[in-house]
Amino acid sequence: MKTQLLPASPASSGSRQPDRPRASRGTAALFAAQHRRRMLRADLLTVVAWASVAAAVALWLSDGGAAAINSPASAFTAAGIVAGLAGMDLVLLMLLLAARIPLVDRTIGHDRALEFHRKLGKPSLYLLLAHGLLIAVGYGMAEGLDPISESIALWVLVPDMWLAFVSMALFLAVVITSLVAVRRRFPYEFWYAVHLLTYAAVGTSLPHQFSVGGLFAEGTWQRWYWLAICTFTGAALLYFRVAQPLVATSRHRLTVSKVERVAAGVVSIEMTGLQLGRLAGTGGRFFVWRFLAPGLWWHSHPFSLSAEPLVWSADGGGRLRITVRNLGRGSAQLARLRPGTKVMVAGPYGVFSTAARSRDKVVMIGAGIGITPLRALLERTPFAPGDATVILRGHTEQELYLGSEIIDICRQRGVRLFHATGPRSRGDSASWLPEDAVRSGYSLASYAPDLAASDIYICGPSAWAANVIADARAAGVRPEQIHHERFDW
Amino acid sequence: MKARGAVSAALASAGILLAGWQAGTQVPGVNATTITTTAAGSAGAGAGTTGSSSGAASGSSSGGTGSSAGGTGSTGSSATGSTGSSGTGATGSSGTGSSGTSGSESAASGTYTGTAVSTRFGAVQVQVTVSAGKITDITALSLTDTDRKSIQISNRAAPLLRTEVLAAQSASVKIISGATVTSNAYLTSLQAALDAANL
């Protein structure tokens, strides 16, 4: 462990600044309680999600649906109706997961919400396809037509049904372009444009649900329930994805004040704004930024704060900072941002923050540009001197972005700091450590002594992070202690 | 923690499904709810008398029997079927197949039943009353009724179709928008009945 820069001794805590929170005796219990509450919320959300699917089917049951099955035709039709109800319910859940609702975000984090969103994509599409097919077969049997003629008859004869067919095609397009294999072949913008069609797909599917669906005929309570959940979903999307960002933008009035080169291809962007006191404690969490400059305004970027918001006046005037590496075309242009550029902002999002803590000790492991959110989190998250370990990974010392700032914070707060630099291990692709550390037989446990009592924050490229997580799990760390924010959604 | 969430979710879902099922056994079922094919205020041009016939044919599940208020001044309505609607004093013939009741003068008089046309929303069958070569009344024996929406559509469309047909004296009338399937089946069944009546 020759790479250790700072010892874990509390001796260095003499220069700690007074405003920094420090863990006291009660912290462990506090974080344990916070974690219990978060798990409870997660369970509640799970229950609500599953219950909503059950409720969709129960709507049909409560209408005497099961009793009305008396022929093969009606059995097909009934199965089709149930598939449609469940499919639509999943679509609404997907929309809610992508709506950036604070309750969901604080509980499972934005990345996991989107992971669930993605997981529901195929099942909901299959249900909707089954809905169409089964109904076509069931109706066709009732009428003595084959499913294709029946579909044509439905398109032509039954009002709003042609919209439902359009909706089906749009859903297909949206899901297919989101398949990993397909998505990789097209630029992000193409995928994004097609994904926006989801709104059209849902919009065109609604009329037939209320005008053709017998379950939702005028005057039934089922109609009111369905209207309510559709309206609720639409309102949540409008509020959290449109209204809230506009409010945040006008509240904070952010303007780029400085663009500073940190290393090759890496810049820190500083923005001044108002009422930033409201964002206290968001260091490490991410915001979705939109820089209102020519050629940039139409592209939004998710970036984490690389420092706690700095507030210097009573009205909340202060500074935010993000540090970005030029990865895509969009981020390359950011290096040329001019001071004075207005910034639209939405957030904060994610649980890469103190809100995720479950233990009183902390281990932070960052690689490359992933170091920068850790830098912000390290500033404020509570721990006692000696209770935190930071491991920074990069090919060279120059790649440990904001490294000198981190050294300063570690000195002030009594943090054990390691620089793990060097090429990655050629022999062991499952390792997250540099070659020489692997040869010496080091693993996560060699750096952080008390893993069982620590929260582990990991930020870096996904493959690397997966290796860190595997190492931590092998050391007996429980999943809820591992906090890893993914940005590849 | 994960298990707790999964178990609670399973229990809650099962409870909701059970409640839905239970509620489903309480409802009378769509078939028995309400399909009213009211043919009120028609002028029965029989032997000089004006018989207003109001018929409520409910009970679409049976779909076969119905009422006819025919020629000789009798007011009649009948209700057959599973539940519900009251019928007053049934006269006339019931049964499928065309059966003529006492037409007094004219050649083409009586009641004629059209074929049952099955649609995806239920079977449709109408009975037409003809007196002196004129269509005097149409009674729907069964209408699209597989679900509540179809019943609503039927209840809206049938009286309109009936009025249209009585005015046009033929099955060549425009279909009711929003009730295409019901209208088509209604007019098809009607045409069959008119064919049987040689109209």
Briefly say what this structure is:
The complex is a heterodimer of chains A (489) and B (199). Chain A is built from 14 helices and 13 strands.
- Strand line-up of the largest beta sheet of chain A: 5-4-8-2-3-7-6
Amino- and carboxy-terminal Cα gap of chain B: 76 Å
Helical/strand content category of chain B: alpha+beta
Assign a percent range to the helix content of chain B.
25-40%
SSE pattern of chain B: HEEEEEEHH
Form type of chain B: rod-shaped
Question: What's the tally of helices of chain B?
Answer: 3
Main sheet attributes: strand count, strand direction, barrel closure of chain B: 4 strands, antiparallel
Radius of gyration based on Cα positions of chain A: 26 Å
**Poorly predicted sequence stretches spanning 5 or more consecutive residues of chain A:** 9-20
Strand proportion of chain B = 15-25%
Describe the oligomeric state of these chains in a short phrase.
Answer: heterodimer
Q: State the order of secondary-structure elements of chain A, H for helix, E for strand.
A: EHHHHHHHHEEEEEEHEEHEHEHHEHE
CATH architecture level-2 label of the largest domain in chain A: Up-down Bundle
CATH topology heading of the largest domain in chain A: Four Helix Bundle (Hemerythrin (Met), subunit A)
* Record field, number of beta strands of chain A: 13
**Category by helix and strand content of chain A:** alpha/beta
Chart the SSEs and their pairings.
The complex is a heterodimer of chains A (489) and B (199).
Chain A: E1 4-6, H1 27-62, H2 72-97, H3 102-143, H4 147-157, H5 161-178, H6 180-183, H7 188-211, H8 221-252, E2 254-263, E3 266-273, E4 286-291, E5 301-304, E6 310-311, E7 318-325, H9 329-334, E8 342-349, E9 361-367, H10 371-380, E10 388-394, H11 403-413, E11 415-421, H12 435-439, H13 444-447, E12 454-459, H14 462-474, E13 482-484
Parallel strand pairs in A: 9-10, 9-12, 10-11, 12-13
Antiparallel strand pairs in A: 1-11, 2-3, 2-8, 3-7, 4-5, 4-8, 6-7
Chain B: H1 2-26, E1 42-45, E2 50-53, E3 110-113, E4 117-119, E5 122-131, E6 134-142, H2 148-168, H3 180-196
Antiparallel strand pairs in B: 1-2, 3-5, 4-5, 5-6
Helix pairs in contact in B: 2-3
